[in-house]
Amino acid sequence: MHSEIEFENAIKTMLEHIGEDVNREGLIDTPKRVRKAYEFMCSGYKQDPKEIIQKALFTSTNDEMVVVKDIEFYSFCEHHMLPIIGKAHVAYIPNGKVIGLSKIPRVVDVFARRLQIQEQLTEQICDALNEHLKPKGVAVMIDARHMCMEMRGVEKICSTTVTSALRGLFKSNKGTKDEFLSIVAQSLHK
Q1: At 123, which helix (H) or strand (E)?
Q2: Is 148 one of the catalytic residues?
Q3: Of residues 8, 116, 118, 126, which has the active-site annotation?
Q4: Which residue among 77, 120, 123, 150 is the active-site one?
Q5: Which residue in 4, 16, 78, 119 is the catalytic one?
Q6: Is residue 152 pLDDT above 70, yes or no?
Q7: Which of 20, 120, 123, 148 is catalytic?
Q8: pLDDT value, residue 107
Q9: pLDDT of amino acid 190
């Protein structure tokens, strides 16, 4: 309770700093709404990707690529605390186990719902799946817009940043990597 009040007071201070009247009708409940919004949008700090993955592993003889494309996510740039809006494309090659498909977007959200840089977000998703699923390979590609570039600074509207992380066969086998890239290429910059 004490930390909630501290957070709300910090929002009031910020509003006053930018020249707002914190007592005007539209802003009276804003500090509480902002606190609740941030609790949700930064909920990834309280989640463990290992738990999500290990609760949804199933034995399978499948050893072909599994791809989940166009996973929408929202994150915050750790430098300006402005939104990062994008899509993640995740692939893995099973090694005796498959993961429930709904768990892959949940793993993306665990890391997206933290203050981030896109490069680190991409690596964290890839490494969590690689470590806890133990597949023959994992690939993650993220295509995202950064509001810190669009709303301030260089103001480059609609520019996107693409990052990738590859492990196992996706890194060592050009054919596997090329197959993944051809599958996700049609989703980039949609």
Answers
A1: helix 118-133
A2: yes
A3: 118
A4: 77
A5: 78
A6: yes
A7: 148
A8: 98
A9: 57
Confidence of residue 175 (pLDDT cuts 50, 70, 90): very high
**pLDDT, tens digit (0-9, with 9 covering 90-100), for 105-147:** 999 999 999 999 999 999 999 999 999 999 999 999 999 999 9
Residues 136 and 111 in one domain: yes
Tell me: do 60 and 135 sit in the same domain.
yes
Is 118 noted as a catalytic residue in this protein?
Answer: yes
Q: Is 80 a catalytic residue?
A: yes
**Phi-psi sector, 70: left (phi>0), alpha (psi -120 to 50), beta:** left
Any residues with CB less than 8 A from the CB of 127 and at least 6 apart, and which?
165, 167
Which domain, by its residues, includes 9?
A: 1-42
Task: Flag whether 42 is marked binding.
Answer: no
Q: Active site includes 79?
A: yes
For residue 40, the tally of other CB atoms under 10 A from its CB is: 8
Contact predicate 116/79, CB 8 Å: no
CA distance readout (Å), 150 to 82, 87, 88, 133, 164: 10, 17, 20, 36, 22
124 tagged catalytic: no
Name which residue leads in pLDDT, 158 or 9. Answer: 9
Q: Is 89 annotated as a binding residue?
A: no
Q: Residue 158 pLDDT > 90, yes or no?
A: no
111 in the same domain as 91: yes
